[in-house]
Amino acid sequence: MSAFNLNVDVNQNGNVKNADSSSTLDDIDDFDFSKLLEKPRPLNIERLRSLDERSLTELSASPQLRNVDSASRLHDHADYVISPSVGRRSGYNTPRSVQGFESHPMVGEAWDALRRSMVYFRGQPVGTIAAVDNSEEKLNYDQVFVRDFVPSALAFLMNGEPEIVRNFLLKTLRLQSWEKKIDRFQLGEGVMPASFKVFHDPVRNHETLIADFGESAIGRVAPVDSGFWWIILLRAYTKSTGDSSLADMPECQKGIRLILSLCLSEGFDTFPTLLCADGCCMIDRRMGVYGYPIEIQALFFMALRCALLVLKHEGEGKFLVEQIVKRLHALSYHMRSYFWLDLKQLNDIYRYKTEEYSHTAVNKFNVIPDSLPEWVFDFMPPHGGFFIGNVSPARMDFRWFALGNCIAILSSLATPEQSTAIMDLIESRWEELVGEMPLKVCYPAIESHEWRIVTGCDPKNTRWSYHNGGSWPVLLWLLTAACIKTGRPQIARRAIEVAEARLHKDNWPEYYDGKLGRYVGKQARKSQTWSIAGYLVAKMMLEDPSHVGMIALEEDKQMKPVMRRSNSWTC
Protein backbone atom coordinates (compact mmCIF):
# COMPACT_ATOMS: atom_id res chain seq x y z
CA MET A 1 0.00 0.00 0.00
CA SER A 2 1.43 3.35 -1.04
CA ALA A 3 1.30 6.70 0.72
CA PHE A 4 1.35 10.12 -0.87
CA ASN A 5 3.24 12.63 1.24
CA LEU A 6 3.75 16.37 1.22
CA ASN A 7 6.42 17.32 3.80
CA VAL A 8 6.49 20.84 5.18
CA ASP A 9 8.44 22.12 8.21
CA VAL A 10 6.25 23.88 10.73
CA ASN A 11 6.67 25.71 13.98
CA GLN A 12 3.35 24.64 15.44
CA ASN A 13 1.30 21.51 15.81
CA GLY A 14 -2.16 22.24 14.50
CA ASN A 15 -3.52 18.79 13.82
CA VAL A 16 -6.89 19.50 15.45
CA LYS A 17 -7.31 22.86 17.10
CA ASN A 18 -10.10 24.47 19.09
CA ALA A 19 -11.39 27.93 18.17
CA ASP A 20 -13.59 30.40 20.05
CA SER A 21 -15.89 30.57 18.65
CA SER A 22 -44.45 25.63 -13.13
CA SER A 23 -43.16 26.80 -16.35
CA THR A 24 -41.65 25.36 -19.51
CA LEU A 25 -37.98 25.14 -20.39
CA ASP A 26 -38.37 28.06 -22.79
CA ASP A 27 -40.00 30.35 -20.22
CA ILE A 28 -38.24 30.27 -16.86
CA ASP A 29 -37.86 33.49 -14.92
CA ASP A 30 -34.87 34.20 -12.71
CA PHE A 31 -35.62 32.65 -9.34
CA ASP A 32 -36.29 35.18 -6.60
CA PHE A 33 -35.45 33.47 -3.33
CA SER A 34 -36.60 36.49 -1.33
CA LYS A 35 -40.23 35.58 -2.06
CA LEU A 36 -39.85 32.45 0.03
CA LEU A 37 -39.43 34.21 3.36
CA GLU A 38 -42.51 34.18 5.54
CA LYS A 39 -41.41 37.36 7.32
CA PRO A 40 -40.31 39.90 4.71
CA ARG A 41 -37.05 41.62 5.44
CA PRO A 42 -34.42 43.36 3.31
CA LEU A 43 -32.16 41.13 1.28
CA ASN A 44 -28.82 42.12 -0.15
CA ILE A 45 -29.78 42.20 -3.82
CA GLU A 46 -27.06 43.44 -6.10
CA ARG A 47 -27.16 44.17 -9.78
CA LEU A 48 -24.75 41.56 -11.02
CA ARG A 49 -24.01 40.54 -14.54
CA SER A 50 -23.51 36.84 -14.27
CA LEU A 51 -22.89 33.89 -16.53
CA ASP A 52 -25.15 31.71 -14.41
CA GLU A 53 -28.17 32.32 -16.62
CA ARG A 54 -26.35 32.13 -19.96
CA SER A 55 -27.45 29.34 -22.23
CA LEU A 56 -25.17 26.54 -23.31
CA THR A 57 -25.82 27.52 -26.91
CA GLU A 58 -24.57 31.06 -26.27
CA LEU A 59 -21.52 29.77 -24.44
CA SER A 60 -20.51 27.58 -27.33
CA ALA A 61 -21.23 30.18 -30.00
CA SER A 62 -20.10 33.51 -28.61
CA PRO A 63 -16.61 34.55 -29.81
CA GLN A 64 -16.75 37.64 -27.64
CA LEU A 65 -17.16 35.50 -24.52
CA ARG A 66 -14.14 33.41 -25.33
CA ASN A 67 -11.93 36.51 -25.32
CA VAL A 68 -13.05 38.22 -22.15
CA ASP A 69 -11.03 37.98 -18.98
CA SER A 70 -12.17 35.90 -16.06
CA ALA A 71 -13.40 38.78 -13.95
CA SER A 72 -15.83 39.92 -16.59
CA ARG A 73 -16.92 36.30 -17.15
CA LEU A 74 -18.35 36.30 -13.67
CA HIS A 75 -20.11 39.66 -14.06
CA ASP A 76 -21.30 39.96 -17.63
CA HIS A 77 -24.68 39.01 -19.17
CA ALA A 78 -27.76 38.95 -16.93
CA ASP A 79 -30.32 41.06 -15.21
CA TYR A 80 -31.03 41.29 -11.51
CA VAL A 81 -29.97 38.19 -9.60
CA ILE A 82 -29.74 37.50 -5.91
CA SER A 83 -26.25 36.73 -4.74
CA PRO A 84 -24.88 35.70 -1.38
CA SER A 85 -23.55 38.72 0.46
CA VAL A 86 -19.78 38.90 0.46
CA GLY A 87 -18.35 38.74 3.93
CA ARG A 88 -21.73 38.72 5.66
CA ARG A 89 -22.01 36.45 8.66
CA SER A 90 -25.08 34.56 9.74
CA GLY A 91 -26.00 32.01 12.34
CA TYR A 92 -24.20 31.64 15.66
CA ASN A 93 -23.23 34.77 17.60
CA THR A 94 -23.27 37.10 14.62
CA PRO A 95 -25.02 40.39 13.86
CA ARG A 96 -27.29 38.65 11.36
CA SER A 97 -28.69 36.30 13.99
CA VAL A 98 -29.71 39.22 16.19
CA GLN A 99 -31.75 40.95 13.49
CA GLY A 100 -34.94 38.97 13.77
CA PHE A 101 -33.86 35.39 13.04
CA GLU A 102 -34.77 33.40 16.10
CA SER A 103 -31.86 31.01 16.38
CA HIS A 104 -32.53 27.59 17.88
CA PRO A 105 -30.34 26.83 20.93
CA MET A 106 -28.82 23.99 18.90
CA VAL A 107 -27.20 26.45 16.50
CA GLY A 108 -24.64 27.74 19.00
CA GLU A 109 -23.76 24.21 20.09
CA ALA A 110 -23.44 23.18 16.45
CA TRP A 111 -20.99 25.98 15.69
CA ASP A 112 -18.90 25.05 18.71
CA ALA A 113 -18.83 21.43 17.57
CA LEU A 114 -17.98 22.39 13.99
CA ARG A 115 -15.05 24.52 15.12
CA ARG A 116 -13.75 21.67 17.29
CA SER A 117 -13.52 19.56 14.13
CA MET A 118 -11.25 22.01 12.29
CA VAL A 119 -7.91 20.68 11.09
CA TYR A 120 -4.83 22.88 10.85
CA PHE A 121 -1.77 22.43 8.67
CA ARG A 122 1.20 24.70 9.24
CA GLY A 123 -1.02 26.91 11.35
CA GLN A 124 -3.71 27.35 8.69
CA PRO A 125 -7.19 25.78 8.70
CA VAL A 126 -7.46 23.28 5.85
CA GLY A 127 -10.65 21.32 6.55
CA THR A 128 -12.73 19.48 9.13
CA ILE A 129 -12.30 15.88 10.25
CA ALA A 130 -15.10 13.41 9.65
CA ALA A 131 -15.99 12.94 13.32
CA VAL A 132 -14.76 14.04 16.74
CA ASP A 133 -15.73 10.84 18.54
CA ASN A 134 -13.15 9.67 21.03
CA SER A 135 -15.33 6.79 22.23
CA GLU A 136 -14.67 4.75 19.09
CA GLU A 137 -11.61 3.60 17.18
CA LYS A 138 -10.74 6.40 14.79
CA LEU A 139 -10.25 4.27 11.65
CA ASN A 140 -10.42 6.94 8.93
CA TYR A 141 -12.84 9.25 10.77
CA ASP A 142 -9.90 11.47 11.76
CA GLN A 143 -9.34 12.40 8.12
CA VAL A 144 -10.62 15.30 6.01
CA PHE A 145 -12.90 13.84 3.34
CA VAL A 146 -13.59 15.87 0.22
CA ARG A 147 -17.30 15.04 0.07
CA ASP A 148 -17.71 15.39 3.85
CA PHE A 149 -16.14 18.83 3.90
CA VAL A 150 -18.62 20.34 1.41
CA PRO A 151 -21.36 21.18 3.96
CA SER A 152 -18.70 22.47 6.37
CA ALA A 153 -17.31 24.66 3.60
CA LEU A 154 -20.75 26.03 2.78
CA ALA A 155 -21.35 26.82 6.45
CA PHE A 156 -18.11 28.79 6.66
CA LEU A 157 -18.82 30.60 3.39
CA MET A 158 -22.32 31.55 4.55
CA ASN A 159 -20.80 32.81 7.79
CA GLY A 160 -18.28 35.01 6.00
CA GLU A 161 -15.24 32.80 6.71
CA PRO A 162 -13.82 31.80 3.31
CA GLU A 163 -10.19 31.25 4.35
CA ILE A 164 -10.59 27.59 5.33
CA VAL A 165 -12.39 26.86 2.04
CA ARG A 166 -9.66 28.51 -0.02
CA ASN A 167 -6.96 26.58 1.84
CA PHE A 168 -8.83 23.31 1.41
CA LEU A 169 -9.24 23.83 -2.34
CA LEU A 170 -5.53 24.59 -2.75
CA LYS A 171 -4.31 21.71 -0.60
CA THR A 172 -6.45 19.10 -2.36
CA LEU A 173 -5.38 20.56 -5.70
CA ARG A 174 -1.74 20.08 -4.68
CA LEU A 175 -2.46 16.49 -3.70
CA GLN A 176 -4.05 15.86 -7.11
CA SER A 177 -0.65 16.36 -8.72
CA TRP A 178 0.97 13.45 -6.84
CA GLU A 179 1.60 10.13 -8.52
CA LYS A 180 -1.23 7.75 -7.60
CA LYS A 181 -0.75 3.99 -7.64
CA ILE A 182 -2.73 1.05 -6.32
CA ASP A 183 -0.52 -2.01 -6.37
CA ARG A 184 1.20 -1.67 -9.77
CA PHE A 185 -1.54 0.31 -11.49
CA GLN A 186 -1.30 4.07 -11.89
CA LEU A 187 -4.49 6.09 -11.57
CA GLY A 188 -5.44 8.91 -13.90
CA GLU A 189 -3.71 12.23 -13.37
CA GLY A 190 -6.96 14.05 -12.68
CA VAL A 191 -8.18 11.84 -9.81
CA MET A 192 -8.81 13.83 -6.63
CA PRO A 193 -8.20 12.24 -3.22
CA ALA A 194 -11.06 10.77 -1.23
CA SER A 195 -9.48 12.17 1.92
CA PHE A 196 -6.29 13.36 3.56
CA LYS A 197 -4.95 13.65 7.08
CA VAL A 198 -2.29 15.73 8.81
CA PHE A 199 0.47 13.68 10.39
CA HIS A 200 2.61 15.49 12.97
CA ASP A 201 6.10 14.34 13.82
CA PRO A 202 6.92 15.90 17.22
CA VAL A 203 10.58 14.84 17.04
CA ARG A 204 11.33 16.54 13.71
CA ASN A 205 8.67 19.21 14.32
CA HIS A 206 7.14 19.03 10.86
CA GLU A 207 3.82 18.00 9.42
CA THR A 208 2.93 15.78 6.51
CA LEU A 209 -0.23 15.56 4.44
CA ILE A 210 -1.12 11.95 3.68
CA ALA A 211 -3.74 11.41 0.99
CA ASP A 212 -5.95 8.43 0.21
CA PHE A 213 -6.93 8.02 -3.45
CA GLY A 214 -8.80 4.79 -2.83
CA GLU A 215 -5.92 2.51 -2.01
CA SER A 216 -7.01 2.40 1.63
CA ALA A 217 -10.76 2.50 1.03
CA ILE A 218 -13.25 -0.33 1.44
CA GLY A 219 -12.99 -2.29 -1.80
CA ARG A 220 -10.10 -0.14 -3.07
CA VAL A 221 -12.33 2.06 -5.26
CA ALA A 222 -11.24 5.51 -6.41
CA PRO A 223 -13.67 8.32 -5.48
CA VAL A 224 -15.38 9.44 -8.68
CA ASP A 225 -17.36 12.11 -6.83
CA SER A 226 -14.40 13.93 -5.23
CA GLY A 227 -13.42 15.79 -8.38
CA PHE A 228 -17.00 16.84 -9.03
CA TRP A 229 -17.46 18.14 -5.49
CA TRP A 230 -14.17 20.04 -5.81
CA ILE A 231 -15.37 21.88 -8.93
CA ILE A 232 -18.79 22.56 -7.36
CA LEU A 233 -17.13 23.94 -4.24
CA LEU A 234 -14.74 26.11 -6.27
CA ARG A 235 -17.73 27.70 -8.01
CA ALA A 236 -19.51 28.15 -4.65
CA TYR A 237 -16.42 29.89 -3.24
CA THR A 238 -16.22 32.19 -6.25
CA LYS A 239 -19.94 32.94 -6.15
CA SER A 240 -19.94 33.60 -2.41
CA THR A 241 -16.85 35.80 -2.20
CA GLY A 242 -16.99 37.49 -5.60
CA ASP A 243 -13.28 36.65 -5.87
CA SER A 244 -12.35 34.93 -9.11
CA SER A 245 -8.58 35.05 -8.50
CA LEU A 246 -8.51 31.53 -7.03
CA ALA A 247 -10.36 29.95 -9.95
CA ASP A 248 -8.20 31.93 -12.37
CA MET A 249 -4.94 30.52 -11.03
CA PRO A 250 -3.22 28.39 -13.70
CA GLU A 251 -3.06 25.52 -11.21
CA CYS A 252 -6.84 25.59 -10.66
CA GLN A 253 -7.54 25.85 -14.37
CA LYS A 254 -5.29 22.84 -14.96
CA GLY A 255 -6.95 20.91 -12.12
CA ILE A 256 -10.39 21.44 -13.65
CA ARG A 257 -9.16 20.32 -17.07
CA LEU A 258 -7.58 17.18 -15.61
CA ILE A 259 -10.76 16.20 -13.74
CA LEU A 260 -12.99 16.69 -16.76
CA SER A 261 -10.54 15.05 -19.17
CA LEU A 262 -11.09 11.82 -17.23
CA CYS A 263 -14.83 12.08 -17.87
CA LEU A 264 -14.93 13.46 -21.41
CA SER A 265 -12.38 11.16 -23.04
CA GLU A 266 -13.60 9.06 -25.94
CA GLY A 267 -14.18 5.35 -25.51
CA PHE A 268 -16.70 2.60 -26.21
CA ASP A 269 -19.56 4.39 -24.46
CA THR A 270 -22.91 4.58 -26.23
CA PHE A 271 -24.44 6.73 -23.46
CA PRO A 272 -23.39 10.18 -22.20
CA THR A 273 -23.56 8.91 -18.61
CA LEU A 274 -20.47 7.76 -16.68
CA LEU A 275 -19.86 4.06 -16.07
CA CYS A 276 -18.82 3.52 -12.44
CA ALA A 277 -17.95 0.80 -9.97
CA ASP A 278 -19.74 0.13 -6.70
CA GLY A 279 -18.45 2.21 -3.81
CA CYS A 280 -17.30 5.21 -5.85
CA CYS A 281 -19.37 7.89 -4.09
CA MET A 282 -21.17 8.56 -0.79
CA ILE A 283 -22.41 4.97 -0.92
CA ASP A 284 -18.88 3.67 -0.59
CA ARG A 285 -19.62 -0.02 -0.07
CA ARG A 286 -21.15 -2.69 -2.27
CA MET A 287 -24.81 -1.70 -2.66
CA GLY A 288 -25.64 -2.51 -6.28
CA VAL A 289 -25.01 1.01 -7.58
CA TYR A 290 -22.46 -0.11 -10.16
CA GLY A 291 -23.22 0.97 -13.71
CA TYR A 292 -24.67 4.45 -14.11
CA PRO A 293 -25.72 5.60 -10.60
CA ILE A 294 -27.93 8.66 -10.36
CA GLU A 295 -25.67 10.29 -7.73
CA ILE A 296 -22.67 10.33 -10.05
CA GLN A 297 -24.66 11.42 -13.12
CA ALA A 298 -26.26 14.34 -11.26
CA LEU A 299 -22.92 15.44 -9.78
CA PHE A 300 -21.31 15.08 -13.21
CA PHE A 301 -23.95 17.32 -14.75
CA MET A 302 -23.58 19.92 -12.01
CA ALA A 303 -19.77 19.87 -12.19
CA LEU A 304 -19.92 20.41 -15.95
CA ARG A 305 -22.18 23.42 -15.51
CA CYS A 306 -20.00 24.84 -12.73
CA ALA A 307 -16.89 24.30 -14.85
CA LEU A 308 -18.38 26.48 -17.59
CA LEU A 309 -18.58 29.31 -15.07
CA VAL A 310 -15.02 29.10 -13.76
CA LEU A 311 -13.05 27.85 -16.77
CA LYS A 312 -11.30 30.35 -19.01
CA HIS A 313 -12.89 30.10 -22.42
CA GLU A 314 -9.75 30.78 -24.38
CA GLY A 315 -6.47 28.95 -24.84
CA GLU A 316 -6.42 25.43 -23.45
CA GLY A 317 -9.96 25.79 -22.12
CA LYS A 318 -11.59 26.59 -25.46
CA PHE A 319 -11.83 23.02 -26.78
CA LEU A 320 -12.89 21.70 -23.36
CA VAL A 321 -15.72 24.23 -23.18
CA GLU A 322 -17.02 22.98 -26.53
CA GLN A 323 -16.88 19.39 -25.25
CA ILE A 324 -18.73 20.35 -22.07
CA VAL A 325 -21.54 22.06 -23.97
CA LYS A 326 -22.08 19.03 -26.22
CA ARG A 327 -22.02 16.64 -23.27
CA LEU A 328 -24.48 18.71 -21.26
CA HIS A 329 -27.04 18.63 -24.05
CA ALA A 330 -26.67 14.86 -24.49
CA LEU A 331 -26.62 14.14 -20.76
CA SER A 332 -29.69 16.22 -19.95
CA TYR A 333 -31.67 14.54 -22.73
CA HIS A 334 -30.61 11.06 -21.64
CA MET A 335 -31.34 11.59 -17.95
CA ARG A 336 -34.66 13.35 -18.43
CA SER A 337 -35.79 10.74 -20.93
CA TYR A 338 -34.61 7.41 -19.53
CA PHE A 339 -34.01 7.92 -15.79
CA TRP A 340 -37.25 9.76 -15.04
CA LEU A 341 -40.12 7.79 -13.51
CA ASP A 342 -43.65 8.94 -12.76
CA LEU A 343 -47.00 7.17 -12.80
CA LYS A 344 -47.34 7.36 -16.58
CA GLN A 345 -43.80 6.17 -17.23
CA LEU A 346 -44.27 3.33 -14.76
CA ASN A 347 -47.40 2.22 -16.59
CA ASP A 348 -45.56 2.42 -19.92
CA ILE A 349 -42.75 0.20 -18.61
CA TYR A 350 -45.31 -2.22 -17.18
CA ARG A 351 -46.70 -2.65 -20.72
CA TYR A 352 -43.34 -2.91 -22.50
CA LYS A 353 -42.75 -5.48 -25.21
CA THR A 354 -39.36 -7.14 -25.20
CA GLU A 355 -36.81 -8.35 -27.75
CA GLU A 356 -37.40 -5.32 -29.97
CA TYR A 357 -34.86 -4.61 -32.67
CA SER A 358 -33.97 -1.54 -34.79
CA HIS A 359 -34.03 2.16 -34.08
CA THR A 360 -37.84 2.15 -33.78
CA ALA A 361 -37.75 0.12 -30.55
CA VAL A 362 -39.74 1.59 -27.68
CA ASN A 363 -38.10 -0.57 -25.01
CA LYS A 364 -34.60 0.54 -25.95
CA PHE A 365 -32.84 -1.09 -23.01
CA ASN A 366 -34.82 -4.35 -23.29
CA VAL A 367 -36.10 -4.06 -19.74
CA ILE A 368 -38.24 -7.06 -18.76
CA PRO A 369 -41.57 -5.85 -17.26
CA ASP A 370 -41.59 -8.81 -14.86
CA SER A 371 -38.46 -7.32 -13.25
CA LEU A 372 -40.50 -4.40 -11.88
CA PRO A 373 -40.43 -4.64 -8.07
CA GLU A 374 -43.81 -4.85 -6.37
CA TRP A 375 -43.08 -2.01 -3.94
CA VAL A 376 -42.75 0.62 -6.67
CA PHE A 377 -46.42 0.36 -7.69
CA ASP A 378 -47.56 1.37 -4.20
CA PHE A 379 -44.73 3.86 -3.67
CA MET A 380 -45.48 5.95 -6.77
CA PRO A 381 -48.08 8.64 -5.92
CA PRO A 382 -50.61 9.96 -8.46
CA HIS A 383 -48.71 13.26 -8.57
CA GLY A 384 -44.99 12.95 -8.21
CA GLY A 385 -41.93 11.31 -9.68
CA PHE A 386 -38.18 10.89 -9.31
CA PHE A 387 -34.98 9.93 -11.08
CA ILE A 388 -34.43 6.22 -10.54
CA GLY A 389 -31.15 4.85 -9.28
CA ASN A 390 -29.67 3.30 -12.41
CA VAL A 391 -30.39 2.50 -16.06
CA SER A 392 -28.32 0.11 -18.15
CA PRO A 393 -29.00 -2.74 -20.61
CA ALA A 394 -31.83 -4.95 -19.31
CA ARG A 395 -31.58 -3.31 -15.89
CA MET A 396 -33.41 -0.55 -14.11
CA ASP A 397 -32.76 0.13 -10.43
CA PHE A 398 -36.03 1.69 -9.28
CA ARG A 399 -34.76 2.69 -5.83
CA TRP A 400 -35.04 6.30 -4.69
CA PHE A 401 -31.68 7.94 -3.92
CA ALA A 402 -31.92 11.25 -2.08
CA LEU A 403 -28.59 12.84 -3.00
CA GLY A 404 -28.96 12.29 -6.75
CA ASN A 405 -32.49 13.68 -6.84
CA CYS A 406 -31.64 16.75 -4.75
CA ILE A 407 -28.59 17.51 -6.90
CA ALA A 408 -30.74 17.05 -10.01
CA ILE A 409 -32.97 19.85 -8.72
CA LEU A 410 -30.11 22.14 -7.68
CA SER A 411 -28.23 21.72 -10.97
CA SER A 412 -31.42 22.05 -13.05
CA LEU A 413 -30.83 18.62 -14.51
CA ALA A 414 -34.47 18.18 -13.52
CA THR A 415 -36.89 20.37 -15.44
CA PRO A 416 -39.11 22.67 -13.37
CA GLU A 417 -41.94 20.17 -13.77
CA GLN A 418 -39.75 17.29 -12.67
CA SER A 419 -38.42 19.28 -9.71
CA THR A 420 -41.98 19.95 -8.58
CA ALA A 421 -42.81 16.26 -8.97
CA ILE A 422 -39.84 15.26 -6.79
CA MET A 423 -41.07 17.61 -4.07
CA ASP A 424 -44.59 16.19 -4.44
CA LEU A 425 -43.18 12.70 -3.96
CA ILE A 426 -41.36 13.70 -0.77
CA GLU A 427 -44.53 15.23 0.66
CA SER A 428 -46.65 12.24 -0.37
CA ARG A 429 -44.18 9.72 1.03
CA TRP A 430 -43.10 11.62 4.12
CA GLU A 431 -43.20 8.65 6.49
CA GLU A 432 -41.12 6.53 4.14
CA LEU A 433 -38.48 9.13 3.21
CA VAL A 434 -38.34 11.37 6.30
CA GLY A 435 -40.07 9.54 9.12
CA GLU A 436 -38.56 10.40 12.49
CA MET A 437 -35.19 11.62 11.13
CA PRO A 438 -34.46 13.09 7.69
CA LEU A 439 -33.45 11.78 5.22
CA LYS A 440 -33.43 8.26 3.75
CA VAL A 441 -30.25 7.89 1.70
CA CYS A 442 -32.12 5.36 -0.44
CA TYR A 443 -35.51 3.67 -0.41
CA PRO A 444 -36.45 0.92 0.07
CA ALA A 445 -33.93 -1.27 1.86
CA ILE A 446 -32.88 -4.51 0.24
CA GLU A 447 -33.16 -7.62 2.43
CA SER A 448 -33.11 -11.41 2.64
CA HIS A 449 -31.76 -13.19 -0.44
CA GLU A 450 -31.42 -9.98 -2.43
CA TRP A 451 -29.32 -8.46 0.37
CA ARG A 452 -27.01 -11.46 0.35
CA ILE A 453 -26.52 -11.27 -3.42
CA VAL A 454 -26.25 -7.49 -3.80
CA THR A 455 -24.14 -6.60 -0.75
CA GLY A 456 -22.24 -9.87 -0.32
CA CYS A 457 -23.76 -10.26 3.16
CA ASP A 458 -22.34 -6.91 4.29
CA PRO A 459 -22.93 -6.74 8.08
CA LYS A 460 -22.89 -2.94 8.04
CA ASN A 461 -25.51 -2.59 5.29
CA THR A 462 -28.22 -4.73 6.84
CA ARG A 463 -31.81 -3.67 6.08
CA TRP A 464 -32.72 -0.12 7.11
CA SER A 465 -29.18 0.57 8.26
CA TYR A 466 -26.26 2.67 7.00
CA HIS A 467 -26.48 2.98 3.21
CA ASN A 468 -29.20 0.33 2.94
CA GLY A 469 -32.16 2.52 3.80
CA GLY A 470 -30.51 4.36 6.68
CA SER A 471 -31.46 7.95 7.55
CA TRP A 472 -28.66 10.51 7.18
CA PRO A 473 -28.99 13.95 8.82
CA VAL A 474 -26.35 15.43 6.49
CA LEU A 475 -28.87 15.22 3.65
CA LEU A 476 -30.90 17.90 5.41
CA TRP A 477 -28.92 20.68 3.72
CA LEU A 478 -29.52 19.23 0.25
CA LEU A 479 -33.22 18.80 0.96
CA THR A 480 -33.46 22.38 2.25
CA ALA A 481 -31.67 23.83 -0.78
CA ALA A 482 -33.92 21.86 -3.14
CA CYS A 483 -37.02 22.97 -1.24
CA ILE A 484 -36.06 26.64 -1.44
CA LYS A 485 -35.18 26.42 -5.12
CA THR A 486 -38.57 24.88 -5.90
CA GLY A 487 -40.48 27.36 -3.73
CA ARG A 488 -41.40 24.82 -1.04
CA PRO A 489 -39.50 26.00 2.09
CA GLN A 490 -42.25 24.69 4.35
CA ILE A 491 -41.09 21.14 3.56
CA ALA A 492 -37.58 21.99 4.71
CA ARG A 493 -38.85 23.74 7.81
CA ARG A 494 -40.88 20.69 8.76
CA ALA A 495 -37.89 18.37 8.22
CA ILE A 496 -35.60 20.61 10.29
CA GLU A 497 -38.10 20.59 13.15
CA VAL A 498 -38.11 16.79 13.04
CA ALA A 499 -34.30 16.73 13.20
CA GLU A 500 -34.11 19.28 16.02
CA ALA A 501 -36.18 17.05 18.26
CA ARG A 502 -33.34 14.53 18.51
CA LEU A 503 -30.15 15.42 16.66
CA HIS A 504 -28.37 17.37 19.39
CA LYS A 505 -29.73 15.16 22.18
CA ASP A 506 -28.28 12.13 20.39
CA ASN A 507 -24.92 13.95 19.98
CA TRP A 508 -25.02 14.41 16.19
CA PRO A 509 -24.92 10.78 14.97
CA GLU A 510 -23.65 9.89 11.52
CA TYR A 511 -26.84 8.04 10.61
CA TYR A 512 -29.99 6.47 12.06
CA ASP A 513 -31.39 2.96 11.60
CA GLY A 514 -34.89 1.58 11.25
CA LYS A 515 -37.72 1.99 8.79
CA LEU A 516 -38.62 5.35 10.33
CA GLY A 517 -35.08 6.36 11.33
CA ARG A 518 -35.97 5.92 15.00
CA TYR A 519 -32.71 4.41 16.29
CA VAL A 520 -29.17 5.76 16.35
CA GLY A 521 -27.19 3.69 13.84
CA LYS A 522 -25.60 0.58 15.26
CA GLN A 523 -22.14 1.62 14.07
CA ALA A 524 -22.81 5.38 13.76
CA ARG A 525 -20.10 7.73 14.97
CA LYS A 526 -21.17 10.52 17.31
CA SER A 527 -20.18 14.16 16.77
CA GLN A 528 -20.25 13.49 13.03
CA THR A 529 -19.07 16.72 11.41
CA TRP A 530 -21.21 16.67 8.31
CA SER A 531 -24.33 15.99 10.38
CA ILE A 532 -23.49 19.16 12.30
CA ALA A 533 -22.61 21.20 9.23
CA GLY A 534 -25.61 19.95 7.27
CA TYR A 535 -27.91 21.22 10.01
CA LEU A 536 -26.19 24.62 10.14
CA VAL A 537 -26.33 25.08 6.37
CA ALA A 538 -30.02 24.17 6.32
CA LYS A 539 -30.76 26.69 9.07
CA MET A 540 -28.76 29.48 7.40
CA MET A 541 -30.43 28.91 4.04
CA LEU A 542 -33.87 29.21 5.63
CA GLU A 543 -32.67 32.36 7.42
CA ASP A 544 -31.39 33.86 4.18
CA PRO A 545 -32.54 32.02 1.04
CA SER A 546 -30.10 33.99 -1.13
CA HIS A 547 -27.41 31.64 0.20
CA VAL A 548 -28.89 28.96 -2.06
CA GLY A 549 -27.42 30.89 -4.99
CA MET A 550 -23.94 29.58 -4.27
CA ILE A 551 -25.03 25.96 -4.68
CA ALA A 552 -27.96 26.17 -7.11
CA LEU A 553 -27.98 26.76 -10.87
CA GLU A 554 -30.94 27.98 -12.86
CA GLU A 555 -32.30 26.24 -15.95
CA ASP A 556 -30.59 27.00 -19.25
CA LYS A 557 -33.33 28.98 -20.98
CA GLN A 558 -32.34 28.05 -24.51
CA MET A 559 -31.89 24.34 -23.97
CA LYS A 560 -34.36 22.52 -26.21
CA PRO A 561 -37.22 21.06 -24.16
CA VAL A 562 -37.10 17.30 -24.05
CA MET A 563 -40.20 15.35 -25.01
CA ARG A 564 -41.68 12.85 -22.59
CA ARG A 565 -40.19 9.42 -22.87
CA SER A 566 -43.34 7.77 -24.17
CA ASN A 567 -43.14 10.05 -27.21
CA SER A 568 -39.40 10.22 -27.75
CA TRP A 569 -38.96 6.48 -27.63
CA THR A 570 -41.31 5.99 -30.60
CA CYS A 571 -39.52 8.43 -32.89
Provide a compact summary of the structure:
The chain has helices at 56-61, 63-67, 70-73, 95-98, 105-116, 146-158, 163-176, 224-241, 245-248, 250-264, 294-310, 316-339, 343-350, 374-379, 402-410, 416-428, 430-433, 448-455, 475-485, 489-500, 529-543, 565-568; strands at 4-9, 118-121, 124-128, 144-145, 181-182, 185-186, 195-201, 206-212, 340-342, 385-392, 395-401, 442-443, 512-513, 519-520. With 571 residues, it is an alpha+beta fold.
**Structural class by secondary-structure content:** alpha+beta
Determine the N-to-C terminus distance: 52 Å
DSSP summary: helix tally? 22
**What kind of oligomer do you see?**
single chain
Classified by CATH, the class is: Mainly Alpha
How is the biggest beta sheet arranged? 4 strands, antiparallel
CATH architecture title: Alpha/alpha barrel
What coarse outline follows from CA principal-axis ratios?
Answer: globular
* DSSP strand content: 5-15%
Gyration radius from CA atoms, angstroms: 23 Å
InterPro entries: 6-hairpin_glycosidase_sf, 6hp_glycosidase-like_sf, Glyco_hydro_100
GO molecular function, one term: endo-alpha-N-acetylgalactosaminidase activity
GO biological process, one term: sucrose catabolic process
Family: Belongs to the glycosyl hydrolase 100 family.
